[in-house]
Task: structure prediction
Amino acid sequence: MDAQRMTGPGAGVVKYDLVTSLSVAGLNGPPVLQTSMMRLISLITARYNWTQDELCVGQREMARMWSVNERTVKREVKRLTEAGLLICKRAGVKGRVATYRLNIQRIVEMSEPCWALVGPDFEARMQARHGSASVKVVALKDYATSPVKTSDADTPWERTLQRLSETDPSVFQSWFAKVGFCSFDAGTLQLTVPTRFSERYIATHLMGPLTGAAEQEFGAIHKVVFV
Result:
């Protein structure tokens, strides 16, 4: 979604729904995610420049707004950028304040599993608005960006990924595509994840589908460990 849609007619509804998506996704996650989403929402509502499509706020001002120290601000901004929710446009060097922009597509991908929790009207509105993005995600599932191919999924983990991709291609591309297999021993499945944010989200929102698909290939799973 471009900046013009965020500043033209009807932009208020679009921005309101975006904040709603972030808040509900945060509230349905662990305390760390709740705090991160609250801090991000405060920046969006107080300081985001929709005309320029950028956020330019100094660490001292963030620390004051969040009632934390600047070290915590650095950790939080790093967490948000690693999660892909914020994209750095210009780094802060030689006294210049760093500038970021929101990754709308990433926000959509992260929050989509929670849209229905707001209500059917909200879910329908979000699906209608971001439908083209969803189609692209589904279309990409058969290309090389996905680690799973239906013709050569010949290990238990590859077959697990294949099951997940066939069950929900959009969720698969957003959360499971980059999960890697380490080991399976005595009912413990050990996996790798690209970021700690991914680990938290999968652990709190998607453990059911993950273990369900994996148990069809590995047998009973008593614990899933992320490394």
Q: What stands out?
A: The longest strand covers residues 180-185. The chain has two domains: 4-108, 142-226. The beta strands are 86-90, 99-102, 180-185, 188-192, 223-226. Confidence is low (pLDDT under 50) at residues 132-152.
